[in-house]
Write a structure and sequence with these properties.
about 55% strand
Length: about 140
């Protein structure tokens, strides 16, 4: 059965974020609300890592963000978040006032951690509102 393996209620955790604002903490990325968000510091690159409760088979990654231009998503199957492999590289189009929604189809890849590497933005600051990772536990 597939579910959002990154959501905090599923045991997902943001274990690293390169920027921190107490009003917009990185944990907002996995709270399931598009009205809350993590905001960057205005410098690039920026990154965050989501760790799962256990190794998961992932099928789809959705990211809801604003002003992200160049994004790389990587996965790791190690117990610690190391030795990442590229899942995809994407260039996201500019959206003036709407959230960007990027859906990444994954060919049932295993992952214990996902790293989101924001190389550039359409502006100085970007925000990540939600990450949804559809998948299931590896048995």
């Amino acid at each position: 059965m597939s579910y959002d393996v990154a959501h905090k209620s599923s045991g997902g955790q943001v274990v690293l974020a390169t920027a921190s604002d107490p009003r917009h903490p990185p944990e907002n990325i996995i709270d399931g609300e598009k009205s809350t968000f993590w905001v960057t510091s205005g410098l690039f690159p920026q990154e965050f890592i989501i760790s799962f409760q256990s190794q998961m088979t992932i099928t789809t990654i959705q990211i809801y963000c604003f002003n992200v231009q160049s994004l790389t998503v990587e996965r790791s199957v190690k117990a610690d978040p190391v030795d990442f492999e590229v899942v995809c590289d994407r260039e996201l189009p500019f959206t003036d006032t709407q959230l960007q929604k990027e859906e990444i189809k994954v060919d049932s890849a295993s992952a214990s951690h996902l790293r989101f590497f924001i190389k550039t933005g359409h502006d100085h600051f970007v925000s990540v509102h939600s990450v949804v990772v559809q998948g299931s536990a590896v048995h």
